[in-house]
Structures are given as structure tokens and as C-alpha cells.
Specification:
The longest helix has 18 residues. It is elongated, with a radius of gyration of 23 Å. The two termini are 37 Å apart. The protein folds into 2 domains: 251 residues, Dihydropteroate synthase-like (TIM Barrel, Alpha-Beta Barrel), CATH 3.20.20.20; 97 residues, Sulfite Reductase Hemoprotein, domain 1 (2-Layer Sandwich), CATH 3.30.413. Helix 2 runs parallel beside helix 3. Helix content is 40%, strand content 20%. Strand 12, helix 11 and strand 13 form a beta-alpha-beta unit.
Length: 361
């Protein structure tokens, strides 16, 4: 398969979470889920605002009981991105959340009583709410587990199709679908199979992916493989801990595939015996100062002046270090010599200048 470009993305029908389009050629959106107790409105809103600042475009909250459902309205009134209610078991909670104005709900068909689905669909239709069918390898229907001998890709797809047909029989098509597994090959294969059978927007993710490093690896492979093949309309990188950490990884995957050029692309060399600056310290400082920036540009942090500007000639701006100092350059052209203690501020000044000139152009 050749390099993935926008024109060869899988064609899906569009759905709208408020004003945000998912599928139908819209940009691949980035979402996350809160880790706070939804009943604690203050903490939940604070975390969502941090996620918004980091670039999160859709947020999901757990709604495990009536008290959490009662908090939905106040949470929604204090955030700026579409809100998704995550519902398990109790269909009444889905209806309360829909009536409170959430843009979407996520239900796991494997743990909701089938006879109650029509009531949820009726409420969703009346309020223009999107339903995500969230199939999860950990909660598949027993008959499918027995039929397939476990939660393999075919079992995930059959579960999804079963519930897609259920909603379609109720004349409802404002649907998104996810097929999550902690097994990356199973996850990849499941999405590939389903993408051949339906044209609903797909939400990609590797569930229970682990802490930062492990989750980054598994999500990059799973989500990245599918996006490269043109599959996927919205993504979540699941990381144990602070969900704000999920956002830069998600955008990093999109940038690496040149699907969405959002935020700074910081490249740095692995260092070698020629390196005479603290490149790790520099990289961490620059990443921290640029965290949450939406403007795209390539920033190069190179460990030596021998071939730094040459290797990073395509970077918008960069530093090539030497003993206690380095060369500041733009597009491979050296601008001036900078002391090591001034690296960060010099880079940031150049970055601001580049961004301002882009806006004026």
C-alpha cells in the first residue's frame, strides 16, 4: 500500500456531535475520557478544561449512577467541547444524560438489556444525540465468546453488526462504532473487517493499553496502522493516569502520518560521543514550554554542530549544540551563535516570530 493521503481515506457517512463533524471526510478528531468522579463537578470541569487546553476535541465522562447523571448538565454548561456520556447496564441513565443535553452516548451492547434499547434510541432521536456502539473484548456476549472460542476479531465484528442492525431496525443511523481490545493485532483486524461491511464512522483505540510508554507503543502501532490504511475518523490514546498525557501522543500519531499537522513537531537526535550539551534537558524544557500549542512547525534539537543544521535542514527552527554554546538556525541557515543557557529562550523567540509571520502572510 502506498503512502496514505486524505483522498484515500475510507469514505464514511457523517455524524455531528453538536457542530463537530465526525466522518464524511472531516479531520480525524482527538478525544479522551475523564478520570475524576463525575459527581464531583468542580474536579471534573477542571480536568476537562485542562484537556481542552491540551487540544482535546471530544470528552467522555462515566455516568455510573443517578448522582453522576444529575451532574451532567452543570458539567456541560462549563466546558466548550462535545460531551459524551459513558453508560453501562442501566438504560435509564442513558436517557437522563440524553435529556441533559450530551452530544453523544456510548453504550456497550454486551452489558445492556436488549429490550431497553428502543427507549434509549427514542430519546436519542428526539434530541439529535449520536450513539456510539462501543464493543469491548472484555465484555462480549457469552454466545459469541462460545461461538468464536474467545474475543477474537470475528467475535468483535459480529457483536458490532448485531447491534448496528438493532439500531437500524429502529430506523436510527446516527451511529459511531468502536471495536476495542488490548490485543493490538485483534484490534487492527477487527476494524479492518468492519470497515469492509459498514460505512459508519469508526472510533479507534487500544483499550487497557497501560502506562505512558506501553500505551504509546501499543496505540501508535494499533491506531497508526489503521490510519495509514485510511481507516478511522476519531481516536483516543488510552493511558493509565492523567488523561492530559493522551493528547500529545494522539496528535503525534496524526502528525507522523501527515494526517493532521497540529502542534509542534519536535525532533531531536539520539546523541553520540560528539554531543557536548545536555540535549535531554533541552528537549524536556522545550516540550514543556510548547505543550498545548496548536500551531504546526518543526523544531530541531541537534546534539552537535558537525551536521546538525544539515540533517535538520527542513526544520523551521533549530539548535545545533557545541561546547557550552550552539548555532540557532532556520531551514538549515545559521542565524547566530547562542550560549547554552539561552537555548530555550532563543528558540521560543524565533518560534514566536515564525508564527507571527505565518499569521501575517
Amino acid at each position: 500500500m502506498g503512502f496514505m493521503t486524505e483522498h484515500c481515506r475510507r469514505k464514511t457517512r457523517p455524524v455531528f456531535l453538536g457542530k463537530l463533524q465526525i466522518g464524511g471526510g472531516a479531520p480525524v478528531s482527538v478525544q479522551s475520557m475523564t478520570t475524576t468522579d463525575t459527581r464531583d463537578i468542580g474536579k471534573t470541569v477542571t480536568q476537562i478544561r485542562r484537556l481542552e487546553k491540551a487540544g482535546c476535541e471530544i470528552i467522555r465522562i462515566a455516568v455510573p449512577d443517578e448522582a453522576a447523571a444529575a451532574a451532567v448538565t452543570k458539567i456541560k454548561d462549563n466546558i466548550h467541547i462535545p460531551l459524551i456520556a459513558d453508560i453501562h447496564f442501566q438504560h435509564r441513565l442513558a436517557i437522563v444524560a440524553i435529556q441533559a443535553g450530551v452530544e453523544g452516548i456510548r453504550i456497550n451492547p454486551g452489558n445492556m438489556i436488549k429490550k431497553n434499547i428502543p427507549e434509549v434510541v427514542k430519546a436519542a432521536r428526539e434530541h439529535g444525540t449520536v450513539i456510539r456502539i462501543g464493543v469491548n473484548a472484555g465484555s462480549l456476549e457469552k454466545d459469541l465468546l462460545e461461538k468464536h472460542g474467545g474475543p477474537d476479531a470475528d467475535a468483535l465484528v459480529e457483536s458490532a453488526l448485531r447491534h448496528i442492525h438493532l439500531l437500524e431496525d429502529l430506523d436510527f443511523d446516527k451511529i459511531k462504532v468502536s471495536l476495542k481490545s488490548s490485543d493490538v493485532p485483534v484490534m487492527i483486524r477487527a476494524y479492518q473487517l468492519l470497515s469492509e461491511k459498514v460505512d459508519y464512522p469508526l472510533h479507534l483505540g487500544v483499550t487497557e493499553a497501560g502506562a505512558l510508554m506501553r500505551a504509546t507503543v501499543k496505540s501508535s502501532i494499533g491506531i497508526g496502522t489503521l490510519l495509514y490504511q485510511g481507516i478511522g475518523d476519531t481516536i483516543r490514546v488510552s493511558i493509565t493516569g492523567d488523561p492530559v498525557n493522551e493528547i500529545p501522543v494522539a496528535y503525534g500519531i496524526l502528525r507522523a502520518l501527515k494526517i493532521r499537522m497540529v502542534g509542534p513537531d519536535i525532533i531531536s537526535c539520539p546523541t553520540c560521543g560528539r554531543c557536548e550539551i545536555n540535549l535531554l534537558k533541552l528537549s524536556r524544557a522545550v516540550e514543556k514550554r510548547l505543550a498545548g500549542r496548536k500551531d504546526y512547525l518543526k523544531v530541531a534539537l541537534m546534539g552537535c554542530v558537525v551536521n546538525g543544521p544539515g540533517e535538520a535542514a527542513e526544520a523551521d527552527v533549530g539548535i545545533a549544540g557545541g561546547r557550552g554554546a550552539g548555532m540557532l538556525f532556520r531551514k538549515g541557515k545559521i542565524i547566530r551563535r547562542v550560549k547554552e543557557e539561552d537555548f530555550v529562550e532563543a528558540l521560543l523567540a524565533e518560534i514566536e516570530d515564525i508564527i507571527e509571520k505565518k499569521k501575517e502572510a
